[in-house]
């Protein structure tokens, strides 16, 4: 992490920002970025790419906080608890839901290695972003879409906690999240919880699906 954003020890400039207020520049090493991302590797491998010629990479439509967190991840940053011997500014700080969503998308865009995504997952878990229903549902969706099993599992457990705490809680909001609903239903069966309220019009299909899961769980 010592080389991150060091003008004297870098060979590429990362520019970002959604608007003038969020514009920022970060000094990085092509080699480190390439080792973390096949997208960066391809970008810097060919001499004729614009980024290789100008030594500038533009990442638009993302806030500077998201790009900074994303770049820290490529440099091996972990949570403060995991990096006790480095200064706090070098570690991954607490994440908001919106920041976490942007960083997850960036990691997917640049196809960051699995170990790096696990570091992001740990940071999200330590930030305690599952305290409300909407956050848990959103992160469960992102966990599925972007192949982050730690996030997927933690968010599903959080949804189940809401379900247990509020017996009359409707799962109608999950009707447009079939992957999340699948996990919730599976958790209901595995944990032998009473069946949740299912969205209207889906009872027959989901009842059949739950029976199939029951059979699979008994083998």
What percent of the residues sit in helical stretches (DSSP H or I)?
40-55%
Number of strands: 3
Overall, the morphology is elongated
Q: Within the CATH hierarchy, at the fold level, what is the topology of the domain at 1-129?
A: Potassium Channel Kv1.1, Chain A
Order of helices and strands: EEHHHEHHHHHHH
CATH class division of the domain at 1-129: Alpha Beta
What does this molecule look like?
It is built from ten helices and three strands; from the N terminus they run ββαααβααααααα. Strands 2-1-3 form a three-stranded mixed β-sheet. The N and C termini lie far apart (49 Å). Mean pLDDT is 79; it is low at 82-89 and 199-206. It has a domain at 1-129: Potassium Channel Kv1.1, Chain A (2-Layer Sandwich), CATH 3.30.710.10. The protein is mainly α and 219 residues long. α7 (133-145) packs antiparallel against α8 (149-165). The protein has helices spanning 30-36, 38-45, 50-54, 64-74, 97-109, 114-126, 133-145, 149-165, 178-190, 203-218; strands at 12-17, 24-28, 56-60. β1 and β2 (24-28) form a beta hairpin.
Give descriptors for this structure:
single chain; 219 residues; Potassium Channel Kv1.1, Chain A; 3-stranded mixed β-sheet; 10 helices; 53% helix
A few lines on this structure:
This protein has 219 residues and is mainly alpha-helical. Helix content is 53%, strand content 7%.
Sequence-ordered SSE layout with sheet pairings:
Elements: E1 12-17, E2 24-28, H1 30-36, H2 38-45, H3 50-54, E3 56-60, H4 64-74, H5 97-109, H6 114-126, H7 133-145, H8 149-165, H9 178-190, H10 203-218
Parallel strand pairs: 1-3
Antiparallel strand pairs: 1-2
Helix pairs in contact: 1-2, 4-5, 7-8, 8-9, 9-10
């Amino acid at each position: 992490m010592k080389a991150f954003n060091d003008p004297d020890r870098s060979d590429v400039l990362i520019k970002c920002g959604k608007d003038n207020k969020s514009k920022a520049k970060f000094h990085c090493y092509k080699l480190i970025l390439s080792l973390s991302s096949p997208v960066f590797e391809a970008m810097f491998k060919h001499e004729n790419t614009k980024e290789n010629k100008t030594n500038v990479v533009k990442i638009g439509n993302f806030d500077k906080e998201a790009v900074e967190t994303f770049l820290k991840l490529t440099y091996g940053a972990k949570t403060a608890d995991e990096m006790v011997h480095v200064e706090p500014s070098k570690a991954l700080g607490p994440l908001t839901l919106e920041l976490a969503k942007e960083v997850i998308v960036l990691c997917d865009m640049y196809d960051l290695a699995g170990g790096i995504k696990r570091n992001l997952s740990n940071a999200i878990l330590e930030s305690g972003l599952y305290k409300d229903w909407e956050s848990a549902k959103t992160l469960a969706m992102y966990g599925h879409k972007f192949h982050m099993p730690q996030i997927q599992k933690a968010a599903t457990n959080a949804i189940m906690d809401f379900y247990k705490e509020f017996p009359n809680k409707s799962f109608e909001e999950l009707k447009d999240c079939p992957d999340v609903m699948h996990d919730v239903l599976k958790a209901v069966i595995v944990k032998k919880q009473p069946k949740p309220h299912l969205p209207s019009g889906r009872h027959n299909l989901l009842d059949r699906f739950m029976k199939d899961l029951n059979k699979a769980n008994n083998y």
